[in-house]
Write a structure and sequence with these properties.
- Its EC number is 1.1.1.85.
- With 376 residues, this protein is of the alpha/beta class.
- 40% of the residues lie in helices and 19% in strands.
- The protein contains 12 helices and 12 strands.
- The strands form 2 sheets. A 10-stranded mixed β-sheet has the order 2-1-3-12-11-4-5-10-8-9, with helices on both faces.
- A hairpin with a 7-residue loop joins β6 and β7.
- α1 packs parallel to α11, α7 runs parallel beside α8 and α10 crosses α11.
């Protein structure tokens, strides 16, 4: 029997529609090659829609909730004040849909240039698991005497045992199927209360997973070790703010924002998970055909892995890696191919069954369906 899934597609702003269009072309190729189909609902949201209507997440929540997964392009434009879309849509969706774990693979693919001297793909293959609904991103704070010399701003960081525990447990289970090493990243010598709670949860759950080795690295030290000795890390688990920062550092190590991808996972099947490239809307290059669609296409691979379509997901990842290795540059006019041409080449490899899967050892794709349950 052919598996059928319902996907919500949010192209968004800037380069979002371009890269998502490439991902959907690759999805068409995967459906033609493998035994599954998707029903897709394109949802208009983002900066231009907000400017025209004032609508944010609340207006599309019910529509999104009815789907198996969400493929997200990008959101943002200089015409919209910073914070409105980030808090009113993206963070709101993560919290209402309890997308508790932001999962970012950091893998240097063969043939992809990196600014780290002498770094090889064998030395860079890890996953960063970021708590996605709490911490400093709960949006709680206030300003007193705003606009005066006596202005005082307070910003709260919220950490709950339940919120930490579900993400740390997921990270342990992820490590169990990989190299069996879990690293907690925090700042326990300064953020004593929050840091102690994170350490307690890791220590308590470590007894449940005795096969997994654990260690700890301060976030500032992580910024040193991550680029110089990435082979030290397998699964890194961290809080929302620190995760936001070190995952972008990880993207630089693996070749830039254009090849980086992420999954925002609901861990109990009560709402859809969301999959997105992490490069943002890049309005300065929108419409020029300069954007690398690889991040969006690799997000599609994560999405299909999450749904249990492992062979298709693996073929998409391998095809993307093949094309990345052929590009003289990873972004801009120097890329050698336009955004659409990169997408078409990847789609052709998938459709023809010509992906060299030896380029992508077994990793995260095969674990997602087991670790994050399907919709209930």
């Amino acid at each position: 029997m052919t598996n059928r899934y319902s996907l919500a597609v949010l192209p968004g702003d800037g380069i979002g529609p371009e890269v998502v269009g490439c991902a959907l072309e690759v999805l068409d190729a995967a459906e033609a090659r493998y035994s599954f189909t998707t029903a897709r609902t394109e949802i208009t949201a983002g900066a231009q829609h907000y400017l025209a209507t004032g609508e944010l997440f609340a207006e599309v929540e019910d529509t999104l909730r009815g789907h198996d997964a969400i493929l997200f392009g990008s959101m943002g434009d200089p015409a919209v004040k910073p914070g409105i879309l980030e808090r009113g849509f993206i963070l709101e969706m993560r919290q209402r849909f309890q997308q508790a774990a932001n999962v970012r693979p950091v893998r240097l693919y063969p043939g992809v240039p990196t600014p780290i001297a002498d770094l090889t793909p064998e030395r860079c293959e890890m996953v960063i698991v970021r708590e996605n609904t709490e911490g400093a991103y709960v949006g709680q704070g206030s300003t007193v005497h705003a606009g005066t010399p006596n202005a005082v701003a307070m910003q709260e960081s919220l950490n709950t045992r339940a919120g930490i525990e579900r993400v740390v447990d997921f990270a342990f289970r992820l490590a169990l199927g990989r190299r069996k090493k879990l690293t907690l990243c925090h700042k326990t010598n300064i953020l004593v209360a929050a840091g102690q709670l994170w350490q307690e949860v890791v220590a308590d759950l470590a007894t449940k997973y005795p096969e997994v080795e654990t260690d700890y690295v301060h976030v500032d030290a992580m910024c040193f070790h991550l680029p110089l000795s990435p082979e030290r890390f397998d699964v890194i688990v961290t809080d929302n703010l620190f995760g936001d920062i070190i995952t972008d550092l990880g993207a630089v190590i693996q070749g830039g924002l254009g090849v980086a991808t992420s999954a925002n996972l609901n861990l109990d099947g009560t709402a859809p998970s969301m999959f997105e490239a992490i490069h943002g809307s890049a309005p300065d290059i929108a419409g020029k055909g300069w954007a690398n669609p690889s991040g969006a296409i690799l997000s599609l691979a994560l999405l299909l892995g999450h749904l249990g379509e492992g062979p298709a997901a693996r073929a998409i990842e391998a095809a993307t890696v093949q094309v990345l290795g052929e590009l003289p540059a990873l972004a801009g006019a120097e890329m050698g191919l336009s955004t659409a041409e990169v997408g078409a080449r990847i789609a052709a490899i998938v459709r023809e069954g010509a992906a060299n899967e030896a380029l992508v050892p077994e990793s995260l794709l095969g674990q997602l369906a087991e670790l994050a349950p399907s919709r209930v």
